[in-house]
Amino acid sequence: MSHPLFDLLNKLDNASIAYSLSRQRSESVLVSITVVGQRIEIDVFDDGHMEVSRFVGNEDIEGGAELIDSILALA
């Protein structure tokens, strides 16, 4: 039996969608996907359940180097 993480990765591979894996939380693996107009974060847990967050927006240019400074000032 396959784990849902591998099922998800196979679906993404078959769709030729690039992704990255990381560990932001000790209890899950984070699958990060960026496609036109969306950033998607999928936390896959050991028991197979998933939590999906989707950030939708346009890809308009909002500024230059000064925008980076203002974003970092909020962090």
Structure notes:
With 75 residues, this protein is an alpha+beta fold. The protein has one domain. Helix content is 28%, strand content 36%. The protein has two helices and four strands. The protein has helices at residues 4-14, 65-74, and strands at 19-22, 28-35, 38-45, 50-56. A four-stranded antiparallel beta sheet has the order 1-2-3-4, with helices on one face. Strand 3 and strand 4 form a beta hairpin. The longest helix is centred in the first third of the chain and has 11 residues, at 4-14. It is elongated and about 50 Å long. The N and C termini lie far apart (43 Å).
Question: What gap, in angstroms, lies between the N and C termini?
Answer: 43 Å
Low-confidence stretches: none
Radius of gyration, in angstroms, nearest whole number:
15 Å
Counted up, domains total 1
**Helix proportion of residues, in percent?**
25-40%
| Helix-strand topology string | HEEEEH
Largest sheet: 4 strands, antiparallel
Mean pLDDT: 94
How many helices? The count is: 2
Which overall shape is indicated by the principal axes computed on the Cα atoms? elongated
Helix and strand composition category: alpha+beta
Q: Order of strands in the sheet with the most strands? A: 1-2-3-4
Tell me the β content: 35-45%
Number of extended strands: 4
